Amino acid sequence: MAEKITAYRFDRLDQTLSQLNKENCLIIAGGTDVMVLHKSRRGVPPKFPKPIVFIDHLSELKRVYQNHKDLHIGSSCTYSELLEDPFIPLPLKNAIKTIAAPAIRNRGTLGGNICNASPAGDTLPLLYVYNAKLLLRSVNGDRVVAISDFIQGPRRVGRDHNEILAEIILPSVFEEGSHVVFEKVGNRNADAIAKVSFAGYIRINGARIDDVRFAFGAVGPTMVRSIDIEKKLLGHTIPLADADIAQVVADFDKIIKPIDDQRSTALYRKTVALNLLHYFLSTSQNHPT
Ligand SMILES: Cc1cc2nc3c(=O)[nH]c(=O)nc-3n(C[C@H](O)[C@H](O)[C@H](O)COP(=O)(O)OP(=O)(O)OC[C@H]3O[C@@H](n4cnc5c(N)ncnc54)[C@H](O)[C@@H]3O)c2cc1C
């Protein structure tokens, strides 16, 4: 006979937080990562190490709204919901379209992609270049952390057991003048886990680079981003000189350290990652100002 498990599904977020404060539970949003992680053999229900609490239905976690120039995205919004939402920036929609197939996109959430902290999580490179901040809520109140501080390693995040990721905040996303791209390289255009992914952000004033950011996925334990390398390009004019592009590529060559696994080789991953960066930089003059 199947083992019994304790499962909670409260009507409100405050009730959920209060339970999480009393008891260490496994949070389930869409369950698309959790169910795979805890699956048993065929026909046998999954085995969960602790009580589970569902959050996919909580209206408090499903709001998308603009606050001044920032965009707030509820953590339990599914990918399909985000694809329909007029506030969601096009590059994020493009990234979402590469994730899995519609059935998974109907269940999987943005909050789940972040808290699962896979090195190949497809929304993560973009969230890094958007400088995303995460609003964590518990019975003790709210705290806001940068995504790069929250994600600490594969499947490792800085979340206390009584906290829920409530909102993803994209600061200044409604500010004019930035150009953002996302590229994913996998075996197919969608329904494939990334071998490499890349997000680039550039803001050009006249011909001068005011801001530039890069993040690479699936080439390290977490997203690879270097503010020190980005800073070197500030104030340069576009089109960038070949020597400047070569220098940035050489700098990333030193810090991108992929691995061989069933999806790809380290050499392929590194070559493609650097090519994507090179392409983004050498077409910088085509990015609208
Ligand atoms: C067939 C298949 C294909 C897939 N393809 C892709 C793909 O192409 N690209 C990709 O990036 N991913 C892919 N995934 C992985 C998965 O769908 C995504 O990572 C998805 O975003 C997870 O969201 P979820 O709501 O289902 O998370 P869940 O499985 O519910 O949760 C994932 C983790 O996050 C925690 N969690 C969830 N929400 C919160 C919250 N608000 N606060 C605190 N903790 C929370 C959970 O406890 C768990 O540890 C695929 C999965 C499957 C099964």
Automatic annotation (TrEMBL):
UniProtKB keywords: Flavoprotein, Oxidoreductase
FAD-binding PCMH-type domain: residues covered: 1-175
Superkingdom of origin: Bacteria
SMART domains named among the record's database cross-references: CO_deh_flav_C
InterPro entries attached to this UniProt entry: CO_DH_flav_C, CO_DH_flav_C_dom_sf, Diverse_Substr_Oxidored, FAD-bd_PCMH, FAD-bd_PCMH-like_sf, FAD-bd_PCMH_sub2, Mopterin_DH_FAD-bd
Protein name: CO/xanthine dehydrogenase FAD-binding subunit
Protein source organism: Neobacillus ginsengisoli
